[in-house]
Amino acid sequence: MLTIKGIPKNIREPLLGKVRFSEVSKEERRKTIIANPNISKKALEGYVAIISSDTEIRSEMKDLETPVVYGIKGLKILSEGDVIEIFPNGTINVLYQINSRHNIIFVTSKCDCNCIMCPQPVDDNEGSLTELNLRLISLMSKSTEELALTGGEPTAVGNDLFKLILACRDLLPQTALLLLTNGRRFSNFEYTHFFSSLRHPNITVGIPFYGDNNIEHDSIMGSRGAFDGAIRGILNLASFNNSIEIRTVITRQTYNKLLRISEFIYRNLTFVRHVAFMGLETIGRGQQNLKLLWVEPEKILRPLEEAIHYLVQRGMTTSIYNIPLCLLPRNLWRFARRSISEWKDSFDLKCSGCSVKAQCSGVFESTIELFRHHIKPVL
Amino acid sequence: MSDKNSHPYIILPFDFMRFSKDNLLLVNLVGEYLFVSEDEFKKLVTHDINRKSDPLYFILKAKHFITERISDPAIELLAVKYRTKKDFLSHFTSLHMVEITRRCNQKCIYCQVSSQDPDKSHYDMNIETARKTVDLIFMSPARSIKIEFQGGEPLLNYDIIKYVIEYGEKQASIKNKGVEFVVCTNLTRATDDMLKYFGDNNVLISTSLDGPENVHNFARRYRDGTGTYRDVINSFERAKKYVEPSKISALMTTTRYSLIYPDEIINEYVKNEFRSIFVRPLNPFGYSKQKIDEIGYDSSEFLIFYKEILENTLKTNLKGYFIEESFASLLLTRILTPFSTGFVDLQFPAGTGISGVMYGYNGNVYLSDEARMLANMGDYRFCLGNVHKNSYRDIFYSDTIVNLIRDSCAESLPGCSDCAFQMYCGIDPVRNYATQNDAIGYRPTNDFCLINKEIIRHLFEIILKNDLDKMDIFWSWITGRNLSEVRIKA
Predict the structure, then answer these.
(1) Which residues from chain A sit within 8 angstroms of residue B481, using beta carbons?
(2) What is the pLDDT at residue A123?
């Protein structure tokens, strides 16, 4: 998550609001955090907070009761319409970027799996984030194209997930949702029935697949029963005609099984909408287990090409995420997506002269060191 | 079987055959296949494949040949796949063939329908019979209905075709069903008005083209004995003005004379811009010895020809012209995909009556086209009733259908029950009766069985070799896309 920091004043609890750079109506102020205001003291009343890049607090704000964060470096990364959360210590988390195509709702840190490459630490003692997320959804722009519900395991919050989906359905009717889940909870037919009855017009369920059998999949997911649960979940989801995407992270464990995984998907789960093969993100457990997970990018090309060809032959839709174009043979470029969130995305100095940089996913900031020897500009 | 099996894994149902010196072919009950060596096979069946040391273990497991537990979702996946493969059963009769007239302006040398002179109009279906036929058709529970106009030459009774289309569309919209029409015509009497009407009403045209002029005219002649080739080509050219090319297809019936022209036949199809060719062997039933000597051949001769023509078709595709051999395409769909195909000849239980049914010009309802031919010869055992006299229930719940379907499940048929190709093949009990005097039939001398088995085996040989070009072409046929779309070459 993108984070900036400043000097706090009058902040007693976390505050959430939509960033604006110019004055708004009294009604709107309850939801608005105004940035770098250049207006009279009276006009500053009623905002959630004021944020400023000024190194000193301005005189007209001094005796104001409105929370203020000043001395912020990097305030210019914010755009009108972003949603931020301000903490009493002056930290500002950017929860929503209006100009990004990679916005998420972080549903929970809880999870019933423990994947060896998971970028996100599990926290089973975390309090509920649902109220915050509902407010966040209410502050997002209706023109948001896509939104991912992620975690942790979003279904770990049970019915609260349904509240979030309903809020998205009602407040963001144009927004496509992607629910990233291990799929196990959907092995409960009633849960799947409830989920499906929400009738969100555009939601895809993205489920990871690390093997064509329970033994290999479960060992990567760090949990017995993960495969069986996911299979039953997918069958239940399919019985209600839900849109399903299968996601396979390419690691040393999976890279030479991509074809087998594709075969299994085609023969058993032909109805899935999309199959994505994803480059590894090396933070969290992905970093801790790097030695176990890392495979030289050159080695994955042949198996990846075979798997993609297998799926394309059969008319299935497939994509490659998180692998820069210069590492892929040209015939795979059309499958590569610009999949990395802007704030995680990184390019090497070498990339500045690259002719296809604008179409490239780049690499995860966390992974750039590992890729440095492999990437080269396409001229 | 139980979870407390002393063996490390449970073997799920599959059939197998020795495929070559080195290979056995295993096919499970949903049509997934695997080639294994004899040694691997022995280990498999003696529960001796080691999970830790043998990568075959996971391949067998993923393809659902083995499982550790009966509670495994493998069983649920198999159930889903089995339902998918047998999906044709859930719709009941969707193909309805209607003999619009028994009259024909041609007298082809292989015709088994005792066709009548073009001037004998009492062999036409009349409007009352047509209406009752359509009423019966739309009592089928199938959600989409296909009505095929047959003959004789159906265009000789064009008004009734139009009537069935118009009345059929009306019934379809009342009953909220889809309906599709196909006219099976030799095209020689097709006027521009007719072709325009077919184009405007999305009627598919299924015609016959046996090859270049000499091959075609050898078999397909007017009643005076002159060849029909030029008129067919002329009509076909005109048809292209009104009907989308993808909506015109042709059957190619193989005579002894065709056997030496595999190249010329494909070239003729390409020249006329067909996108598919359906190579069919003669249906040998009902011919005299003399006739068989004149036009017939052994199934082995047909198979050599079929393989040559398949090879030529593949080469033509590789050169950049899309043309599929429809029979291979059907079989490949059954072998390589999880889906079911709607082809009446390739299903267990038999498609007779429950997938396809034939209505005679006089309102008689027959189990199939061949059942109609038998009736013409005086044997009415596969006639189910008449649209004027009998109800839907009388006809489609008749003992004739029930008994025949019961006796056509591959799982219990001698010669089919242990055949590795069972999931890809089908049965036609009426044909068995007609050719072998027994609806169950006797496989070792059954041409239908010999030909299907060898074609399936031949396709598996190509699959085993895994030639990338050929596999890409196969997938372009199965998915109906151009070769470039199934490839990922830049």
Answers:
(1) 315
(2) 83
